[in-house]
Design goal:
CATH class of the largest domain: Alpha Beta
Structural class: mainly beta
CATH architecture of the largest domain: 3-Layer(aba) Sandwich
Largest sheet: 11 strands, mixed
Number of domains: 3
CATH topology of the largest domain: Lysozyme-like
CATH superfamily of the largest domain: Peptidoglycan recognition protein-like
Helix content: 10-25%
Shape: globular
Number of helices: 7
């Protein structure tokens, strides 16, 4: 916000105040009226980029330049009870290992900017080029508020990136700052390329001073859909989200296993009238500075107990966010607005967080006082304490620092975890007593079975899949997960949205060569509540010959009756067609020509013979044959001609997951 804008705001306030005082002194009695609550409107934020170029010589010698930052990860295991520590599950069933909570290597000083005057801002963060060769180990900033410089604040490193985006830190919030200084350490002391501080002025909305909330859902004593105890939530329109900043971030989790407690770094001194602006600032930092399609948290709670919707659809679905790198699938994040390394959380904040956690626990059948097992993802730069692929046992309601190298959510909020869990558990128990166990708000679609030309192989790149109409459905959401034949399929906890809303009872899809895809559909009720998913198809497509490794001795033949008009033919034993680095193969499907007296082909995976395809059949220019494997197999898949001197003709090959 510019000085001119602040002056105008101050002038308006002064005029209003003086007018009221003058009327009162004159004996004029002002009538009591109920003024309408101002409606929120979308606010376009202003983001300023402050470049950081190595170590400033003057700043290096200033007092306090290298002081330890507040919120820096220095936690030892002894500071936390054993119940708050993650344990790694041994793959062989052995004793679990407690994940270390010691501080990571701080690295060497790589950049220190001078104290720089900026536009007025409420939110800031540090970003750099994703493709940089430097490993960032620590980032800290300090800001100037009311003419005074704050202490250094450590910012958590965030490993979530998107194509075309930037690497960076979690945001820091202020009550109104106009200066910033940054300090960065890296593993080798080399600053990352494109290093900068992004400061955000989120602007103002008419409704900032009286945050509007949506009405809670109507209660029903006859059935529990999971939404009966949804708390009042400030919607995206309520906090003034500029939806032109958002894009397609279509991943969603099929289920919910755990809820992360997060916090924002920075000030605790904000006013209630600033909360919506702080959310807008975080949203602008995530979208405009990081290049994300949306804000990273599903929910945010301010110190006054106001609950803000973060990600799109977070009130009615389980969209994947960026609350804990390596563990974003199957979890959500509830971010407390404030720095709880320096201040204790208010009772209102704890109540607001317990409301969200209790609601989601009831909706997804989570025991807030229980434990669950998460699989560590491969998100780089997220400071996961466990290695990718490892399983960790954690509380179902856990802190960010439980699985990641960070001090988040701060020592004072960490001390209140049992309070949060108890509050959430009480709310869930009361909901079950009043509304009963959860049942779906709308039924599951019934599919029409795919044809033999659609599953287990979709022979055409385009196909249509259908389902029956569901009573009470407002519309349908179509989801999918897919992977190339030499890439792992995502877990069933991970889905992408193919159609966000369709009133049709069919979907036509295009599927690229060499891919496998699972497509599911679910009904959405009149109140936008999701129903259970129904899988429409699990299918794969053919692999183009340019991806085949073909040994010498095969001849390409052409005929219009062959599928695709051509095939590869050989009569020489030992000749091979192979597919290197195949993943999760369950079925090898071959399409080709057969005739009496034709030969055989062995199917090998990882060098072992798993089955044989016999082309000695009645004459057909287009026959489908397959070998089903035991389980899902990785490695090189080879089709090897048996040495019988007889010809085989192979037109198409698919490596199916199902």
């Amino acid at each position: 916000m510019t000085t001119t804008r602040m002056a105008r705001r101050a002038a308006r306030t002064a005029v209003t105040t003086s007018t009221v005082v003058a009327l009162a002194l004159a004996g004029v009695v002002l009538p009591t009226v109920s003024l309408p609550v101002p409606e929120a409107h979308a606010v376009a934020p202003d983001v300023e980029h402050v470049p950081v170029r190595g170590i400033d010589a003057g700043a290096r010698h200033q007092k306090g330049a290298l002081d330890e930052a507040v919120g820096h990860e220095h936690t030892e295991k002894s500071e936390l009870p054993s119940s708050e520590l993650a344990t790694e599950v041994a793959p062989d069933g052995g004793a679990p290992t407690t994940l270390a909570q010691e501080a990571p290597d701080e690295g060497d000083l790589a950049a220190l900017s001078e104290r720089t005057a900026t536009q007025d801002f409420l939110v800031a963060g540090v970003t750099w080029d994703e493709a940089t060769g430097s490993e960032v180990t620590e980032v800290a900033v300090r800001v100037r508020e009311d003419g005074r410089w704050s202490d250094w604040q450590s910012l958590g490193l965030d490993g979530v990136t998107v194509d075309g985006g930037r690497a960076g830190t979690e945001p820091i919030v202020s009550t109104g700052a106009d200066g910033v200084q940054a300090r960065v350490r890296t593993a080798d002391g080399t600053p990352p390329s494109g290093l900068q501080v992004d400061v955000v002025d989120p602007g103002t909305s008419r409704a900032d001073a009286s945050v509007g909330k949506d009405s809670g859902p109507a209660s029903s004593a006859s059935a529990g859909t999971g939404f009966e105890i949804r708390p009042s939530i400030v919607t995206r329109s309520g906090w003034g989200a500029d939806e032109s900043l958002s894009g397609s971030w279509p991943e969603t989790s099929r289920s919910l296993k755990a809820i992360y407690v997060h916090h924002t770094a920075g000030t605790n001194g904000y006013k209630e009238s600033q909360s919506a602006a702080l959310v807008r600032g975080i949203y602008a930092y995530h979208t405009k500075s990081r290049g994300w399609p949306d804000i990273g948290y599903q929910f945010l709670v301010d110190k006054y107990g106001n609950i803000f919707q973060g990600r799109k659809d977070a009130r009615v679905d389980n969209p994947i966010g960026a609350q804990a790198g390596g563990y974003n699938t199957g979890t959500i994040g509830v971010s407390a607005m404030g720095n709880f390394d320096t201040a204790k959380p208010t009772s209102a904040l704890l109540t607001g967080m317990a409301k969200v956690i209790g609601w989601k626990s009831y909706q997804y059948g989570i025991n807030p006082k229980g434990t669950t097992t998460l699989v560590t993802g491969g998100s780089t730069g997220s400071g996961t304490r466990a290695k990718p692929g490892s399983k960790v046992k954690v509380p179902t309601v856990l802190m960010h620092r439980t699985t990641n190298e960070t001090a988040c959510p701060g020592r004072y909020l960490a001390a209140k975890m049992s309070t949060l869990r108890s509050g959430a558990a009480s709310r869930k128990a009361a909901a079950i007593k009043k509304y009963g166990a959860i049942r779906w708000a709308v039924g599951a679609p019934t599919r029409y079975a795919p044809t033999s030309s659609q599953s287990p192989v979709q022979w055409s790149t385009k196909a249509t899949y259908r389902w029956k109409k569901v009573s009470g459905a407002r519309y349908y959401q179509v989801l999918y997960r897919e992977a190339h034949w030499n890439s792992d399929m995502p877990s069933t906890n991970y889905w992408r949205v193919l159609r966000s809303a369709t009133t049709a009872t069919s979907v036509t899809v295009n599927l690229d060569h060499g891919k496998s895809r699972e497509i599911a559909v679910r009904a959405i009720s009149s109140k936008y509540h999701r129903g259970p998913m129904t899988t429409l198809v699990r299918t794969s497509t053919t692999i183009l010959p340019k991806s085949w490794s073909i040994s010498s001795g095969w001849k390409r033949i052409h005929h219009t009756k062959l599928y695709g008009d051509y095939a590869y033919q050989t009569s020489t034993g030992g000749k091979t067609i192979s597919f290197k680095s195949a993943d999760q193969v369950h079925r090898v499907v071959v399409r080709g020509a057969t005739s009496p007296g034709d030969g055989k082909v062995q199917v090998l995976v990882g060098g072992k013979v798993r089955g044989t395809l016999d082309f000695n059949r009645s004459s057909s220019w287009d026959r489908v044959m397959s070998v089903t494997l035991s389980g899902h197999n990785d490695g090189t898949v080879t089709l090897r001609k048996v040495g019988d001197g007889r010809k085989v003709r192979i037109a198409q090959v698919s490596l199916a997951r199902w």
